[in-house]
Backbone:
């Protein structure tokens, strides 16, 4: 392989490989039925799908937060940065540079914004000065957090809480952030703002993102690659641009109907629709 | 009419006419209040970090004191015994996390509560096995705690302050201030509060719950040892001391289960309240009200302010 090819973004080495994992909750409920995906270094990859498709479970399987929900990975393996991470505690995983921002923000309500951010640096051993520098970096990306640094996080707005959650993850100096439903419950303008920051962090700080989103439209605008999950399986994947152009994705996830669906095609289409929504 | 007079008038006349006696009562109340506060503090620490009501806190007080006395009886100097007793409490914390909590994570609160009941009976049995069941006296002098008393002449009367009580109040104050600083300023303290707020999120940012639990149980163990020394010095070190620890319950209900300042103020209110009530109103009810007064206060609080005076602010955004 030539050097020139290596620089191509498409052939960037994978930072994360999820190979055919199966997840069972409470010993009986099979939620993921063999999901595989890869995330290239410095990429933004989106996992898309409806409620209950298994997006959150996939992220939790990677970050090893499944245990708390009585879930367990029963098959397959997950490789992050060249190592199997399947048996690591979240604590160890954060140390190695992979951190999750949970769905619904989960800020520490009774801590101030600044204290919230500092808890993100819990696993770091590189001293107060470096942490202080990163705190400034986070405040530069999220100027609103600087204004509200002394407020209890529980009293800040939903957008500010989401920013706080992302900023907190950033404080651990991660290589990769697993971002679960960043748009949940936020006004469209705020969603854009947050995705802009995700984009900037990816460009400037070299952070890789794997995000789970129901808001397909926004996610595909910012991601480079996407996987579509349905009832615990990947049903389609491709470059974000291709997915945006795909008729089925347009119809079922972006809500823009294809024109001229008439007669015989409608029948085929209906069958396909049934498969999508099953 | 007589009854009303006895309830609403004569106690206050008594207070005003004998202010020195009132001061003495208040001082006694203050001292037992600080000790209640110390016990309650042990509960609060563990409850905050793991949501477990640690039924074993009372027996931990006895166990810590017994260990200290036991090491001394074995011929070790008092301060060495103190350090070793601390080490034993540390080991206990580590063991509890390893053997009990780690395996019960994510179980309902009730199961964890039952586990602490089990733990307390284990500690009773284990303690009796090693140290025997008979009461022992605390090594007060050997630890360098003062034993005399000071008599203050005031309001044409006297107030007697036991030096031990002064030391108890001072040590309690130092412990509480130290813990408050630890909670608000250090990295581990911040992590403790984070865990108290949201387990899952704490886990997600890489805080190790196991580590945090061991630390809080150790902190609770330190508090238990301090309480054990102080209570032990006032009476004896025996398993009956754990009954005193139950007084922490009304204190907690008053102060709120999650609040360190609440534990302190709750302890003081109960301490002052039960002494005053016993002395000035107890006669009307035939005496012995000190035993149940605190629980009645707790009951009233449960009816009107169940989160306690300083319970966790329930954050509601509008």
Residues:
């Amino acid at each position: 392989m030539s050097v020139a090819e290596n620089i191509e973004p498409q052939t960037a080495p994978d930072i994360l490989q999820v190979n055919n994992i199966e997840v069972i909750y409470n010993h009986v409920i099979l939620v993921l039925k063999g999901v595989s995906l890869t995330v290239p270094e410095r990429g933004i990859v989106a996992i898309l799908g409806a409620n209950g498709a298994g997006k959150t479970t996939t992220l939790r399987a990677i970050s090893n937060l499944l245990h708390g929900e009585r879930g367990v990975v029963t098959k397959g393996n997950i490789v992050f940065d060249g190592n199997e991470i399947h048996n690591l505690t979240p604590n160890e995983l954060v140390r190695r540079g992979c951190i999750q921002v949970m769905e619904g923000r989960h800020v520490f309500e009774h801590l101030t914004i600044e204290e919230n951010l500092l808890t993100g640096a819990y696993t770091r051993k590189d001293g107060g000065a470096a942490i202080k520098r990163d705190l400034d970096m986070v405040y530069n990306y999220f100027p609103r957090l600087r204004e509200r640094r002394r407020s209890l996080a529980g009293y800040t707005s939903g957008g500010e809480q989401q920013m706080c959650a992302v900023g907190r993850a950033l404080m651990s100096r991660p290589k990769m952030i697993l971002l679960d439903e960043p748009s949940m419950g936020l006004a469209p303008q705020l969603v854009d703002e947050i995705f802009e920051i995700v984009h900037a962090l990816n460009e400037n700080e070299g952070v890789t993102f794997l995000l789970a989103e129901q808001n397909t439209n926004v996610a595909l605008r910012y991601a480079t690659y996407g996987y579509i999950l349905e009832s615990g399986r990947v049903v389609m994947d491709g470059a974000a641009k291709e997915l945006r152009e795909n008729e089925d994705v347009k119809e079922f996830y972006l809500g823009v109907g294809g024109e001229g669906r008439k007669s015989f095609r409608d029948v085929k289409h209906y069958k396909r629709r049934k498969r999508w929504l099953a | 009419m007589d009854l009303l007079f006895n309830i609403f008038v004569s106690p206050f006349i008594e207070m005003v006419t004998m202010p020195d006696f009132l001061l003495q009562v208040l001082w006694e109340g203050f001292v037992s209040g600080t000790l209640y506060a110390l016990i309650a503090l042990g509960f609060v620490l563990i409850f905050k970090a793991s949501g477990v009501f640690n039924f074993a806190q009372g027996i931990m007080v006895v166990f810590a004191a017994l260990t200290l006395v036991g090491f001394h009886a074995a011929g070790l100097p008092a301060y060495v015994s103190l350090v070793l007793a601390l080490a034993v409490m540390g080991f206990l914390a580590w063991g509890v996390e390893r053997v009990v909590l780690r395996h019960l994570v994510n179980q309902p609160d009730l199961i964890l509560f039952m586990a602490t009941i089990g733990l307390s009976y284990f500690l009773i049995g284990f303690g009796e096995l090693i140290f025997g069941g008979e009461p022992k006296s605390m090594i007060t002098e050997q630890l360098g705690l003062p034993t005399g008393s000071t008599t203050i002449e005031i309001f044409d009367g006297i107030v007697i302050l036991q030096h031990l009580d002064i030391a108890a109040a001072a040590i309690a104050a130092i412990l509480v201030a130290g813990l408050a600083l630890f909670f608000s300023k250090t990295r581990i303290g911040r992590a403790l509060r984070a865990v108290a707020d949201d387990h899952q999120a704490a886990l997600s940012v890489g805080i190790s719950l196991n580590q945090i639990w061991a630390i809080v149980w150790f902190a609770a163990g330190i508090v238990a040892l301090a309480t054990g020394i102080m209570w032990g010095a006032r009476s004896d070190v025996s398993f009956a001391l754990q009954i005193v620890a139950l007084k922490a319950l009304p204190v907690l209900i008053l102060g709120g289960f999650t609040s360190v300042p609440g534990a302190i103020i709750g302890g003081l209110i109960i301490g002052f309240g039960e002494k005053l009530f016993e002395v000035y109103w107890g006669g009307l009810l035939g005496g012995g009200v000190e035993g149940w007064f605190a629980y009645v206060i707790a009951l009233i609080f449960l009816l009107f302010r169940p989160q306690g005076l300083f319970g966790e602010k329930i954050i509601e955004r509008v």
In short: Chain B has a mean pLDDT of 83. Chain B touches chain A at residues 105-106, 187, 190-191, 193-194, 196-208, 312-313, 315, 317 (CB under 8 Å). The beta strands of chain B are 149-154, 157-162.
